[in-house]
UniProtKB/TrEMBL annotation:
Retropepsin-like aspartic endopeptidase domain span: 52-180
PROSITE patterns for the chain: PROKAR_LIPOPROTEIN (PS51257)
InterPro entries found in the cross-reference section: Asp_endopeptidase, Peptidase_aspartic_dom_sf
Protein name per the record: Retropepsin-like aspartic endopeptidase domain-containing protein
SUPFAM superfamilies noted in UniProt: Acid proteases (SSF50630)
Transmembrane segments: none
Upper taxonomic lineage: Bacteria, Pseudomonadati, Campylobacterota, Epsilonproteobacteria, Campylobacterales
């Protein structure tokens, strides 16, 4: 009985310290909005964010294209299905020429400057280098110019994968739903 009371007192003390520490950490996170944390003061306090499903329509206004896209909160960078990717030099800088499916059986050829090259580690297959370019994407009412990696996604159901670089600070993902946004949103 005596040991039970001692253990109960220890448990209550630990529980109290843990609760106090968590409250202190939550307050610091709210105050520290300039940190690299993915949680900002606005999001904790109810800033309006768009809720999207795990599948949404995404348009590329510069190319007048619309694709179905998978929303992936585990992916750092957004990627798009591109093929015949060829690096070349223009004005002393790295550029890439690539093709996109126009969704009507044709192809669109485009050239853009390379922002960077990323090295992707993949499980069970050879690692991959990908070119990253800047592209404008529109999802619902949100239009952003972001880094997009070019890769062959023919083995995947969706030609675009929307990563955290598009979602961060703007969207909440409801994985139980799809097509929560409209193509007509201005």
């Amino acid at each position: 009985m005596r040991y039970t009371l001692i253990l109960l007192n220890i448990f209550i003390s630990i529980f109290f310290v843990a609760c106090t520490t968590q409250k202190s950490l939550d307050e610091k996170m709210i105050k520290n909005t300039k940190s690299k944390s993915y949680v900002s003061k606005k999001s904790i306090l109810g800033d309006k964010k768009v809720t999207v499903g795990y599948i949404e329509y995404v348009s590329l206004p510069a190319f007048n294209l619309t694709y179905k896209a998978k929303i992936d909160t585990g992916a750092t960078t957004t990627s798009i299905h591109a093929f015949d990717i060829i690096e070349f030099e223009k004005d002393g800088k790295k550029w890439v020429k690539f093709k996109l499916d126009d969704t009507k059986g044709g192809l669109i050829e485009e050239s853009l400057p390379v922002e960077r090259v990323v090295h992707i580690k993949r499980h069970g297959v050879e690692n991959q280098e990908r070119y990253v370019v800047k592209m404008q994407l529109k999802l619902g009412k949100t239009t952003q110019i972001i880094d997009v990696s070019l890769t062959n996604r023919t083995k995947f159901k969706y030609p675009i994968l929307i990563g955290k670089n598009y979602l961060h600070g703007h969207m909440i993902v409801d994985v139980s739903k799809k097509f929560l946004t409209s193509l007509d949103e201005k």
